[in-house]
Amino acid sequence: MVNMTQIFAWLRAHDAVLWWLGALSLLTFVGTLILIPLLVVRIPADYFRRDRHPPQSRPRQHVVLRVCGLIVKNLLGIVFIVAGLIMLLLPGQGVLTILIGLTLMNFPGKHALERWIVRQPAVLRAINWIRAKAHQPALEFPAENITATAPKVKE
């Protein structure tokens, strides 16, 4: 069993690590205060009402560029999800950060999972509050029974 003097000795010996963790925590907190509202405002109001999203209206790109872009987008989504999970314990907007990470990623059942998260009353209230402050309309959902059950994943 570890006693408190050993813990304090370890903390004193690794004070640089603690400073870096504190700085990283502060940086992610400030970053999410700026970045998350910008991203939440950019979500189209009917994003969750659509069953399928139309393909992006970009000029045709070479397959290598598309694959690289898809990889970068998914890696960025993973970074947001990991940061959101960390923010569940540290200061920051953890659930909203996880939601932004999910929207960036591509995987089966993504849209159902996003809808389920956004339909949680506290999350929806926070998102629509941010959107209202930016003079954006509230998010729209299809006319179906809104419940807080787990999403059904299509395979």
Topology record:
Layout: H1 4-13, H2 15-42, H3 63-87, H4 94-104, H5 110-118, H6 121-133
The secondary-structure class comes to: mainly alpha
How many domain regions?
1
Q: Cα distance, first to last residue? A: 47 Å
Percent strand equals under 5%
Shape: globular
Strand segment count: 0
Low-confidence stretches: 145-151
Radius of gyration: 19 Å
Helix content: 55-70%
- Average pLDDT confidence is 80
Number of helices: 6
Q: Note the main sheet.
A: none
Helix/strand order, N-terminal first: HHHHHH
List keywords for this structure.
single chain; 155 residues; mainly alpha; 6 helices; globular
Describe the structure.
With 155 residues, this protein is an all-alpha fold. Helix 3 (63-87) runs antiparallel to helix 4 (94-104) and helix 4 (94-104) runs antiparallel to helix 5 (110-118). Helices cover 62% and strands 0% of the residues. It has helices spanning 4-13, 15-42, 63-87, 94-104, 110-118, 121-133. The chain has one domain (16-51, 60-133). The longest helix is centred in the first third of the chain and has 28 residues, at 15-42.
